[in-house]
Amino acid sequence: MKDKIIFSIENDLCPVASALKVIEGKWKLPIIWVLCQNGTLRYNELKKSVVGITNMMLTSSLKELEESGLIKRVQFNEIPPRVEYSLTKAGEKLLPVLDELAKWGEELIK
Amino acid sequence: MKDKIIFSIENDLCPVASALKVIEGKWKLPIIWVLCQNGTLRYNELKKSVVGITNMMLTSSLKELEESGLIKRVQFNEIPPRVEYSLTKAGEKLLPVLDELAKWGEELIK
DNA sequence: CAGAATCCCACGGGATACTG
DNA sequence: CAGTATCCCGTGGGATTCTG
């Protein structure tokens, strides 16, 4: 009997486990999704686009996504302040995943 | 300025939100993933394949996935008991998503 | 406008033991 | 073998307030 493919968060052999580790949490995929769809967004635009998210979760999620190299933060030193977020090249590579997920979600709705 | 695409868990207009609602939780995608890769698995095989999962989470996740119509449970009335799990047609429709996710995860590892 | 700082709690999930 | 039944806890995340 052939060996089974396993899922393990511990060792880094499972690509799905590695992927999930980066996009875990309630709000990361939603954030990436709206950035995908809308392109560059300001902080407050993000907050309106991701319905229900709080300042704390938005800020912390953005920070983690930035550290993972998926999104880019550009700060303009103006008054009032302006900060724009967008996907990096690496972040855009998630597009196929989200597209498939959206397709699948559409099926669910109908 | 054109309207922005939003993510909202509340109303069912966002396909990504609808999708995430079904596969939320720490273990559902892992379970679906190993069923994808290995085909039909028995309870204990699942438990070994999804490293770290507890009986409780395995049981409850399987139940929810079954209720969502993504997996199929077949029970054989033997001694000792045997129960086999596999993806339904609907569950297999998640394959493209997982494939893309796995591809993306591979990139992360390298 | 774009956050940071606190406080706080529900609950998702873990550990262990038990059973048809 | 394939689960249940309890007990329990950490922390992900919410609500609110404050600030450069």
TrEMBL record, chains A, B:
The keyword DNA-binding applies. Keywords: DNA-binding, Transcription, Transcription regulation. Residues 14-110 form the HTH hxlR-type domain. It comes from Desulfotruncus arcticus DSM 17038. This is Transcriptional regulator, HxlR family. InterPro entries: HTH_HxlR, WH-like_DNA-bd_sf, WH_DNA-bd_sf. The keyword rRNA-binding does not apply. GO terms for molecular function: DNA binding. The lineage of its organism: Bacteria, Bacillati, Bacillota, Clostridia, Eubacteriales. It comes from the Bacteria.
